[in-house]
Amino acid sequence: MHPIKQFWKNSAIYGIGSILVRAISFFLLPLYTNAFSKSETGYIFLIFTFIAFAQIVYSFGQDSAFMQFYKQDSIDKDSVGRTSLFLLIITSIIFSTLIIIFSDSIAINILNLEEGMWVIYCSGILFFDAVSSRIMTLIRIKEHALTFLIISILNVIVSLLTSYILVIKYNFGIDGILIGILVGTILRWVMLIPHQMETLTRGIVSFIFAKKLLKFGLPFFPAAFFYLILEISDRYLLFWILGPEAVGVYSIGYKLGSSALFIISAFNLGWQPFYIKIGKHENAGATFGKIGTIFLRSMISLWVLIVFWTPRIMQLRIGDSHLIGEEFWASEQIVSLVFLSYLFYAGYIVLMPSIYILEKQNWSPIFRGTGAIINICLNLLFIKYWGLLGAALATLVAYIGMFAFIFYKSNQWLKILCNWNSIGVHLAASAVFIFIFGMSEKTIPISVGFTIAYLGLLLLFHGKTKLYNDFKYLKSSFSDA
Predict the structure, then answer these.
(1) Does residue 12 lie within any of the structural domains?
(2) Residue 345 exposed, middle or buried by CB count within 10 Å (0-12, 13-18, 19+)
(3) Does 350 reside within a domain?
(4) Residue 399: inside a domain, yes or no?
(5) pLDDT tens digit sequence for 33-42
(6) What are the contacts of 145-148 at 24+ separation with CB within 8 A?
(7) Model confidence over 23-80: pLDDT tens digits?
(8) What is the DSSP string of 159-198?
(9) Residue 330 structural domain
(10) Number of folded domains that form the chain
């Protein structure tokens, strides 16, 4: 199969699975906003923030290292797989044990509550997620797409059903949410046991490979750490400055805005293996640019449509309740800024090939560290003056800074030939539409009218032929099974 076609095919298949797994907390939004108070919702998202932070520690950059070395044809893949998984299991056991031992202290420090049991649930989620995620990476590399998709779907279904039953029927509260996610994570780990045993019984545990994996992967650890700071510092600063209720409202809006991240993560699942595979080809920069341009244009258009319809989606009635509880509707004001932030992150991802292909991974923590520092400093300043809106604005400026930095360096290393002029004009015109919409009354006729007008302008801007060619290109990419 042509490599570009293979890329789009894998991105679609793995993207569906990835989106479903990441969307567990998204699917639980109606439960959060109708069954819990703003304060309780704030604590739920603070727990998820802790889990996200700990996942970086559990991985310590080894996912990137594993993928980099396992895909090399000249290396003993079995020994790389066994060494990587063995190292991960040992470190994960140590980390989870430490979390259990210090669970009460962790709960007091991150939540200001004596809820050590919540942290113990987190230790189990983190262990089973770390191990199963590494095997899922291996399944992606081996292109076992159907296995990946089935396991992802079952994980989501079990997590959602368990959470809803425990919270609604048995009144388990926040414990029910965590137990539901833990059950789903354990199920995924159990389904992957055959793959774990196969990996652990082939090849040898090699000190040499362990050293190589750590040498390559550890520079990505601070990069991931800084990215997490960029992602979560606003939640903790809001907690310290305005309290848990502010975190609850902000987190709902942030979750809706971060729907962009589902698509970006799905794209990156196919993107990273793809550019590693063809990075040495003569026209790689042009190929990357063509894919990146279509992807970024699509994300900009989606940004506009999400903003037009978010107010209606939030107020959608489900029985006697709304999809998003009424006391959380104020979070709608930050959705546009959060989604726009991730548009710049999408641009950052498009420019990532230069880091991997030319082994510039030492720059990764510098890029992301810059974003993290900007975010923390601006959050401390903006939250005091503009509250939730200030936190979202700080995030946007941080992502713009991170994108600008890698754009400058990437042009020095490996030019990704996106049509940046066209992307910029598209972004500016879309921003004007959103600004005008923000000054209008949020009704269904207004949303419909703006949608029709925007799509009409999009057709005029790109031209019917250009849009048709892009569609034809994407269709042909998926058509070759």
Answers:
(1) no
(2) buried
(3) yes
(4) yes
(5) 888 888 888 8
(6) 145/10, 145/13, 145/14, 148/13, 148/14, 148/17
(7) 666 777 777 788 888 888 888 888 988 898 888 888 877 777 777 777 666 577 888 8
(8) HHHHHHIIIIIT--THHHHHHHHHHHHHHHHHHTHHHHHH
(9) 236-481
(10) 1
